[in-house]
């Protein structure tokens, strides 16, 4: 029996991935690196922590001499600067979160974003009242697709992993959910539903609705 819904944040609750990508570009420019090539952001950063994304990118480009912590600080500051004017709500995700909380499900946000970024989103879009627990990328030793973030989310809600349903939009997040032993509903925000199915999503939708979440929670898909 599903008792808890664990929501990813970027791409599920807020339209923030373009802002994260711009902040990554700001950070790379600040340390003298060229812009990402087409597809590099999706491959290295989408659905993953900034630490993993920058680590892998610096290794691939042979620039491990650059201070990773410095790059992370620059990126975080760039995102915070852009956040008030550029991050937009995803109405279907936020409405679904509120509806599932009102229906009695326990709610967590599990994201690769920093704790400070989750707090900014929760405050700006008034989600804190509905959310019992959060897990950020700076709280786990490994980010998605490792199952650690979702397992920690279940632990903080005091709910068994098999009693959790995850809402995701990225293949790395879907893999993390399935490796944690959880059901996963994926919302396709990029026009590539097959990537989400291949990652193991139990169902893929183009828009989040309480009905779709409830159906999967109750095995009525």
UniProtKB/TrEMBL annotation:
Q: Is Hydrolase given among the entry's keywords?
A: yes
From the record, give the transmembrane residue ranges.
Answer: none
Annotated coiled-coil positions are: none
What GO molecular functions are on record for this protein? Answer: hydrolase activity; metal ion binding
- Gene3D superfamilies from the xrefs? HAD superfamily/HAD-like, Putative phosphatase, domain 2
State the family named in the UniProt similarity comment for this chain: Belongs to the HAD-like hydrolase superfamily. CbbY/CbbZ/Gph/YieH family.
**What protein name applies here?**
HAD-superfamily hydrolase, subfamily IA, variant 3
Taxonomy-wise, where does this protein's organism fall, top ranks first? Bacteria, Pseudomonadati, Thermomicrobiota, Thermomicrobia, Sphaerobacterales
């Amino acid at each position: 029996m599903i008792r808890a819904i664990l929501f990813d944040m970027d791409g599920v609750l807020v339209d923030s991935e373009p802002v994260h990508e711009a902040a990554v570009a700001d950070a790379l420019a600040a340390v003298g690196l060229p812009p990402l090539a087409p597809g590099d952001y999706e491959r290295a950063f989408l659905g993953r922590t900034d630490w993993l994304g920058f680590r892998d990118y610096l290794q691939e480009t042979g620039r491990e001499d650059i201070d990773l912590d410095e790059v992370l600080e620059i990126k975080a500051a760039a995102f915070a600067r852009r956040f008030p004017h550029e991050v937009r709500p995803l109405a279907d995700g936020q409405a679904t979160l509120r509806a599932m909380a009102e229906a009695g499900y326990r709610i967590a946000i599990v994201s690769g974003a920093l704790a400070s970024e989750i707090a900014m989103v929760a405050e700006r879009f008034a989600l804190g009242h509905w959310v019992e627990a959060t897990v950020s990328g700076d709280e786990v030793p490994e980010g998605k697709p490792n199952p650690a973030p979702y397992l920690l989310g279940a632990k903080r809600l005091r709910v068994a992993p098999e009693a959790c349903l995850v809402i995701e939009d990225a293949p790395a997040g879907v893999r993390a959910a399935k490796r944690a032993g959880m059901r996963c509903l994926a919302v396709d925000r990029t026009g590539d539903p097959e990537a989400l199915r291949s990652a193991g999503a139990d169902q893929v939708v183009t828009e989040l609705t309480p009905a779709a979440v409830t159906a999967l929670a109750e095995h009525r898909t």
